[in-house]
Amino acid sequence: MSVGAGPTQAEGQSFFDAIGGHETFEAIVRRFYEGVKDDDILAPMYPEHDMDGAVWRLTAFLEQYWGGPTTYSEQRGHPRLRMRHQPFHVNPEARDRWLLHMRAAVSEANLAPLHSATLLDYLERAAHSMVNTFEETPRG
Ligand code: HEM
């Protein structure tokens, strides 16, 4: 599976529109970063002074993936997410923390059950594909 290219929409409403567009995606991502901020494994990986930038990047990526505006690629180029995660220590522990905060964020968005399941299924597969090391989290 490519995590960068979203499902093609044959006709009708995109998933982006169906769940409430930009407002919904941004709310999920902001809630996700609330969890990240207090997480001892994840917080040190993220740019402390550019959390708004991080919110923008993840929101824009997810919006594009689900059929919303293509602003992410216009500004950041091809997602190449595995490559962009190489600098970070993404082991199964980090993946599980990432998913923990993402599940909480999606749950608080109160989406229809099928939408919620669709989104979480994708995020889980994407998170598994992002693991790039099985070495323990460096702690110092
Ligand atoms: C599995 C655990 C994961 C960890 C520990 C992790 C960690 C990170 C970190 C530390 C950053 C840099 C923050 C920034 O400055 O933007 C980042 C960026 C990003 N992550 Fe993840 N990530 C994970 C999974 C995912 C998944 C599953 C997705 C997609 C569904 C994703 C999408 C992104 C995007 C779009 C960016 C910004 C890329 C850019 O344009 O530079 N990440 N991630």
From TrEMBL:
Name recorded for this polypeptide: Globin
InterPro entries recorded: GlbO/GLB3-like, Globin-like_sf, Globin/Proto, Globin_bac-like_CS, Hemoglobin_trunc
Keywords linked to the UniProt accession: Heme, Iron, Metal-binding, Transport
Family: Belongs to the truncated hemoglobin family. Group II subfamily.
Alphabetical list of Pfam families matching this protein: Bac_globin (PF01152)
UniProt-listed Gene3D superfamilies: Globins
PANTHER family in the record: TWO-ON-TWO HEMOGLOBIN-3
Superkingdom of the source species: Bacteria
Listed transmembrane segments: none
